[in-house]
# Entry
Amino acid sequence: MMTFPPVSEQLLHIQRGTDEIIPKEELISKLEASRASGRPLVVKLGCDPSRPDLHLGHAVVLRKLRQFQDLGHRAVLIVGDFTGMIGDASGRSKMRPALSLEETRQNGASYFEQASKVLNKERTRIVYNSEWLGAMSFGDVVRLAMKTTVARMLNRDDFATRYAQDEPIGLHELLYPLAQAQDSVAIEADIELGGTDQKFNLLMGRAIQKAAGQSPQVCITLPILEGLDGKEKMSKSLDNYIGIAEAPEDMYGKVLSIPDSLIYRYFELATDTDTHDLPSLKRQSAAQPRDTKHHLAAVITRMYHGRAAARRAQEHFERTVIRKEVPDDIPSHRPELTDGSEIGLLTLLTQAGLTASNGEARRLVVQGAVSLDGERVANSRLVIDLADRAPFVVRAGKRRFARIVW
Amino acid sequence: MMTFPPVSEQLLHIQRGTDEIIPKEELISKLEASRASGRPLVVKLGCDPSRPDLHLGHAVVLRKLRQFQDLGHRAVLIVGDFTGMIGDASGRSKMRPALSLEETRQNGASYFEQASKVLNKERTRIVYNSEWLGAMSFGDVVRLAMKTTVARMLNRDDFATRYAQDEPIGLHELLYPLAQAQDSVAIEADIELGGTDQKFNLLMGRAIQKAAGQSPQVCITLPILEGLDGKEKMSKSLDNYIGIAEAPEDMYGKVLSIPDSLIYRYFELATDTDTHDLPSLKRQSAAQPRDTKHHLAAVITRMYHGRAAARRAQEHFERTVIRKEVPDDIPSHRPELTDGSEIGLLTLLTQAGLTASNGEARRLVVQGAVSLDGERVANSRLVIDLADRAPFVVRAGKRRFARIVW
# Structure
């Protein structure tokens, strides 16, 4: 019999970064029952094998699934090969060419391989929904369709908009949410995860499970992650994405390009940082955005490529980006610390020999002539926590540089 | 190779009493091609085996099908057992309890037996749509559903009304018209018949055949026959119907109870009267409604029960209905005819000894004291054509009766 952390502890992790938990009371009951019986919960995530390259946006729900795995629950990844094999002969969607069984399986395997960078591979069950949906007859479909109404279907945001605007909705499109709901019945899901845009489909799963006499799944929605621009949803077509298979250097650099306002959100949604550490990361993101962003870049790169690659990416970034304006041979300085890992900016400048005194250092900061890794510093009272960041280059005036290492 | 009547002759019969032929040009092309190649057209009629008792309202489309048979074409009667076997678990329709295969077949056989009173049994093919619909997979259904849109479905009158009034429409209800359309593909229908309320479904058959690469069927709709009240659609639940399995006496009596305004409509839609005779029947219905209605009752009773039973029904009607107010033993009179089968009312009264002179007879008519089969006669110049009617009872004043026979 498995043992699970206390429900309140589990809730802390599960609630992290979620948009909605519907309904939360049922989640609590399910967690309590699971803990009492030692039976892990079945957590469902559907994936679309027609999109071969995963990015951090996709990883948000995968991370949530991973958190459930870490708590001892069972992940079931559903590859939606059923619709993939059908394609869309209506010509209305170019997104869904019919795939052969082999192509579908290949896409599914590729998805799984990528997802495994986030998931605990050994504890993930991967299933193809053509297994049960492909076995359903017209009669089964009619019986399934009886369980919902047209009005309910057209209530889905995107359908409602298209219907109101007289844009054609293929009748088959109403069948896809039913198919996805039937997946929940087939695997007897306790919980289904999805982006906020999946809320309707997740709730449909609840309804169809109820109609099938099952205990209905709890629906957990996760926010849609903004891309590098900080505005639009992360997506390949907008080219504002960070692919999870991207090279460490590109990954590191791309993370640094996000707006400061997203730093904490990325920590919360896209990293494996301990949930208990989130409050202090929130404060740091606001107080020291530049350093915290480097920290974020390092964490994300480490998650997908390991610690060594992350360090190399960081160094690469310094070499190619920061040092662009920096002479080749600048002195290194290892700060003498008197207060843990922290050091005041003015002290550091003077220690490194870039200024004659803290007074001169303060004047230069006020003049806007001091920068860290190429970014101007305005606050002369800045205290730098070396534990939180990678080596960096400090500059005072036009020509005085030092590389700070520790 | 079969030979068919000229297309213009066929059209005369096919157009009789129809509401719409969509599109008429294609009907003409199909008839021309059929005549040129000697290939009979496949004429489809779907029937709902959940309604076991047929009435004259159902017979309207069956008669049209029979006309096609008489012209040499092939009738295919589709028993909609597929949906019957599914039932309606949504609880929204009490009309569709799930039926076993056996029940469905029994209902189908019963329908066929009743329909055979109208159809040429030997030239009717009866098929059960579960044969092909039951073999369809979820994937097949999705591919079928791709061929139409939600907006198009909700355009159907009854759906539009229910949707606008927030009455629930089960999602499965949108699948039934598709199923019916698929029937047309399965049997490669050239023509489908239905009531005006079936127009949408018939057109869906056209669309789905086109999408399947078939020559689309021509849709022929027939009016909904009014019941005995002359207002509402004939239906069992309104108790305004004439069942095709009803006893001859009941059938005869019920036909007599329709309003005069419906006499011609019944001739046109519900009898096997030669199409060429319709114009003269139209005139007679207006000029001599009472006699023409008896003629109609005799024709309809003869169609379903044969000539002898029709005559017995007529006699029964006289005995029980007309003679109610008539003494048991009244004299019979066989008129002496001088002018073919016609005789003037006044002459008849005097000949039969009910009046002393044509002058007395005229006065009684003007006083409203003369009746035929219980119905007051207002026109003293009335000429009765005995060839057109059954024996009848004539009455003059309170106590003078004669039974007119010939």
About this structure: Residues 294 and 390 of chain A are 7 Å apart (CA to CA).
